[in-house]
Amino acid sequence: MTWKKRWNKPLASVLATAVLSAQVLGGFVAGAFWSTDKAEAADAGGSSLPLIDLRLMSTTDVHTNVYGWDYFKNAPSSSVGLARTATLIQTARSEQPNNLLLDNGDLIQGTPLGTYEAKVQPVTQAVYDSKPHPMIAALNALGYDAAIFGNHEFNYGLEFLDRVVNGSSADAANTKANFPYINANIYKPDGVTNYYKPYEIITKTVKDTNGQDQTIKVGLLGLVTPQITEWDKANLEGKVVTKGIVETAEKFVPEMRAAGADVIVVMAHTGFDAAAAGPNAENAISELSQVPDIDAITFSHTHKVFPTNWDTAKLDASFIDPATKQPYSYIDNVNGHIHGVPAVQAGYGGGYLGLIDLKITQDGSGKWAVDKAASKASTRSASGATEDPAILATVGGDHQATIDYTGTPLGTTTASMNSYFALVQDDPTVQIVTYSQKRYVENLINTDPSLAPYKGLPILSVGAPFKAGRNGPGEYTSIDAGPLTIRSASDLYLYDNTLKVIKVKGSVVKEWLEMSAGAFNRIKPAISTPQPLLNSKFAVFNFDVIDGIKYKIDVTKNAKYNTDGTINDASSSRVTELTYNNTPLDPNQDFIVVTNNYRASGGGNFPGVKGSTMIMDTQTENRQVLMDYIKEAGTIDPTADNNWSLAPIKGNVNVTFTSSPDAKNVLPSNIKDTGATDAKGFEVYSLNLKETVPAPTEDVEVHLIGINDFHGQLDTTSIVSGKNVGTAAVLATYLKQARTKYTNSLLFHNGDSVGASAPVSSLERDEPTIEWMNKMGFDVGSLGNHEFDQGVEALKTQLFGGADPKNNKVVHAGTDFDYVNANAVDSKTDTPIINPYVIKEVGGVKIGFIGVVTKATPSKVSPAGTAGVRFLSPDEEVQAIEKYAAELQGKGVQTIVVLAHDPASTRGEATTGEAADLASALPANSPVDVIVAGDNHALANGVVNGKLIVQAYSYGTAFEDIKLVIDHTTGDVKTKSAVVTTTFQDGVTPDAATVDLVNKYLNLHPELTKPVGTTDGTITRTDAYNNESALGNLIADAMINADFGDGKKADFAFMNPGGIRADLPNGNVSFGDLAKIQPFGNTLVKLTLTGAQIKTLLQQQWGVKADGSPDTKTLQISGLKYTANMYLPVANRIASLTKTDGTPIDPNQTYTAVVNNFMAAGGDNYKVLTEASASVAGPIDLDVFYDYIVKTFNGGLITSKIEGRITNNLSPAVISLPGSSPTAAPSPSASPAPSATPAPSATSAPAASSAPVFKDLGKVAWAQEAINSLAAKGIIKGVDGNHFAPAKNVTRAEFVTMLVRSLNLTNTGASNTFKDVKQGVWYSDSIAAAVKAGIVKGSGSGKFEPGREITREEMATMIVNALKGQLHPVDKNAVLQKFADKSKIAPYAQEAVAQLTELGIVNGVDAGKFAPKGIANRAQAAVIIFRMLEKQAS
């Protein structure tokens, strides 16, 4: 195919989506992509060559857990223990005799058993020359084939490690490991000679699937995270050096192949980190898996489990792409592949057994190779498994000795201690450690002469909650009141760290805390739904608390640092109110900081710490310092001084965090149990971080500042009253100024914030608009119909964050504020697709916002856009609003605002539209105070049924300021009013931050400003909803010429008028201008239709709204032409239908027609298109439009005009009979907006007729008499036999026609001199007669503007001109004094308004205003003409 795919998804995205779907849906779907059964079947059916199944079994990070025993609690544990894993190993071996058993490191440290064997009764003592280390004894008993070193193997030094692995010199045979230990990236100091054997090639005899013996060579390569030389510097400095994991693999994998390895397995003590990069990355599995020729990987270090066997909910967050909320595209959690390589991580403590089942095939030359695609990794949990007595026996004596040792008394605690809340508030379990460390160092500095230079310097002490759920919900410190033992000290200080003391500046202390503050997710103050506080990617042992200073952490700000120490947001600072001795911390002051060897040597990558001046490089364990303190103190009274806290948040936030289920038994007052449990067994708690606001003591004035229908018009300038208005930067200035004026304000958006957007926004999937709204600090938003344009998934991604489903290169950050909607519900569950309401607190009062969207959404959006959604009926909507309003009242909310993306318009005294209907439908005593309208881009500011209804046009050309005065005791609204302000650009400085944001995105798309041609300004969409338009013709012509790759031009093209969103500008035309015209990025579709279906399609243009009024959406066409008799029923309306050359369209013949995918799916009621017999998807509509313009006009003048493709006859032809007057045409139906020249609603003559009965006058009782009287006289008619459409606007031509008919004026001898009034149109005679009678003079510049809607002051002027000679002079200043807006009445109209006011023909509107520029509707026009006739008669 030849078309450009400027916006199409790349194939890789589609494939990624397919894999993602497989992971989400599980095995049935996944089998289609990865099934090993299918792979085997293919091998078996297509070849007789042998196939070998080889199972790799992996344990890792056992950390001296053999018994299922918690040495800290001195109680059984069901989650750990190699003795349990042993049972799984036996089962796995029985299932597959071809196997290897491997350990991936961190074996000999981690519990008091490890400490006991290394420090208390070390196996290096001569007395233990015949005793193996208990962990080696256990592995020997299980028959391990190989093992590697983890970082913790080096905690006790190289000599100790050598004794563990190689046994005692006196009895090596009985004390050594009976399997090889390998490592390739630890070198002797020369950096050339490997310190250990780098790899092992095991020659193994196995049976193939045919039962025949085969010999294969399995190569095992060992690697460890290179940071060991930093973390255990005291043990390793000058003795070894390390190299990067990836570079080492790249060196040795080819060497192993050359040495004959058929299979290469990399055993790497390193974890997974998607962001890891660089030669010495700590967690390098992602990069390692991309090294060529690796067949399988066992990995470890981070204590995670991979894969989780299809259950993504149990997969650690480090494997999850934050953009998609699913595993990274190269992670296959179903089959355990990373970048296509089978890989397994077996958790912690013997809690899991990792399996990799390799499929090994042989080619014709006899060479063995691993079929990685058919191979599968998996994990098995040891929870609940029976412990193997033989394994227990190997360590039984050491186990009991450890229990006895840890029971050694140290002191007493007066209160219990636990670390359940240590990540969210200052905690005694951390403070007892920091206090003991500080005390120890203070004593040394004051007594050791060598440390005298540091006397007087402030000493800070660092601690972290080491046991805070890292390895599951059971891993928290928990110590009862009473005796404290060594076991207690180990529970408080988990690791065998050694104490280090460094000197740093205050600036380093600040950045140290900023790094630590990365433990928290950002909390959005304007979001009221639950927000998880804890960053699951942040290691708990890196959450450093620094005692000796005071500080707060503001979690509403971005973290400054990522979890690996790299910069996340350099401009951000979470650490606030940082003080030392109650004065702001001096960044240049020197501080002594007590920490441990891991942190001081650079562990955790804390900025500025590594390389600091070391003033105490001790080998004293931090735990020993703690034990000594407890012994000396005797009795401990555990407290926390609350030197740090999370800063209160101004907003109705719901902050949650996870902790042990046991925490619910000891909850402090600021924490509550939600009752929920996550997939890993953690309990979910809520933390009260809301700022306490004192109750108001007087009535509260709140201003709701809002916009609607912004449509992503970030850089669009509109014209209002001949002046430039709008753009996001100008709007931002107005909004910020408005908020600055008021003590209490909230900023909201009422739907269609995006969709049909300007290209600077739409090309980036509207993320620029969302980003702008976030920067502006919006507090709440609602859904409009355009939010559904791209489907519910895309809608939710924009709101909640993630990779855009239509363009995964765009990653949405999500909104920083709540969106609400109550009437779009899930079609299966019947529950709202987002939160139906939200509570905002401001000035000590609560305001509830309920959201609804226009019920016409299904007809305005492609069916795909609303798939899975049901929109409530009007009655259901009212019930829902009342239900949620009652819920709000139950929560103490009495001020309630409905953000209703429903049409509304205020003209004169009347506010009408769907929002007004909603207000009327609500009970008179409904607690709803305000309804904000939207959708029809109009002005609304009026009261209906006690509810204030407000709308502020669209595109950021205006904003509303709703003033509420709320009773401070009851919370009820005492007064309410609104002002709508136009955002004129003159004299306004655009907001600099917004300018920068818009320019940032404009710079990404220089094509937006490149000219593609010029126009004379006549190619517009004027009246496209009702008639042929020049721009519609241009677009349809482009569509019919679209290249679908089949070499065939379509017969016809149809473009829906709602998809034409702007006009071509006068002058230069850029790609950006074209994108504003067609902003949706729709795909063109070529359909095969019959001639009969083409006719049906045209008939479906003429719909009817729910209220019975017309809903016309005239298709813009190419390749055909037709004539429609609009005065006939729809079924009979098409009078002729031919191709452009006049050839009739055969109802039975098939034709091809190009439409967009919105229409093809039945959007805008074009349902017949869903019945096409064939469909071919093609290019993007904008691409086609752009290419057509470029190729057709070659950068020159772009031309298009109205050609007569569509002929709409509004009335039958006038038939003249000899000796008689012409037969008058009946009144046509009213046409919908937007219409520059809508058909008149007046009859052609004032002859009396039987009066019709209109059914839609219930809401305009004040106009019923006038309407019925004029209708009975034939002066006016309804839009059909039963409806008058009283709220429909009236144009100047329509009102003049009504006025002329009511006065029985004729046009004899009259002629038109207005250049915009053509001869022969329905209103030309009336205008001529009115000019002749002196009623009208035109609008200036030789124009009459017949299609412009008439204002109230223009109408008054025409009436006075009609009554000239019958009126008496009045004191206009005295009469007009009653109107607050008298200054806005044009000078030419003041006399007329005064005279008609005096006579009672016209009245003011709400709030003592006349609203001279307000638009008149049909009801108002009828009343004023009726009153005029009454005055004339009198």
Descriptive keywords:
Purple Acid Phosphatase, chain A, domain 2; 5'-nucleotidase,  domain 2; eight-stranded mixed sheet; signal; disordered N terminus; alpha/beta; 5'-nucleotidase activity; seven-stranded mixed sheet; 1434 residues
CATH architect. name of the largest domain = 4-Layer Sandwich
Q: How would you sum up the global shape?
A: elongated
Low-confidence stretches: 1-46, 1214-1249
Task: Say what oligomer this is.
Answer: single chain
Tally of helical segments: 38
User: How widely separated are the two ends?
Assistant: 78 Å
What's the total number of strands? 71
Summed over residues and divided by their number, the pLDDT gives a mean of 90
Share of residues in strands: 15-25%
Q: Which structural class fits the helix and strand makeup? A: alpha/beta
Write the CATH fold name of the largest domain: Purple Acid Phosphatase, chain A, domain 2
Helix content: 25-40%
What would CATH call the homologous superfamily of the largest domain? Metallo-dependent phosphatases
Radius of gyration: 40 Å
Compute the number of structural domains.
Answer: 6
Q: What is the C-level CATH assignment of the largest domain?
A: Alpha Beta
Note the main sheet: 8 strands, mixed
InterPro entries: 5'-Nucleotdase_C, 5'-Nucleotdase_C_sf, 5'-Nucleotdase_CS, 5_nucleotidase/apyrase, Calcineurin-like_PHP, CpdB_N, Metallo-depent_PP-like, SLH_dom
GO molecular function: 2',3'-cyclic-nucleotide 2'-phosphodiesterase activity; 3'-nucleotidase activity; 5'-nucleotidase activity; metal ion binding; nucleotide binding; UDP-sugar diphosphatase activity
Organism: Paenibacillus durus
Region (Disordered): 1218-1246
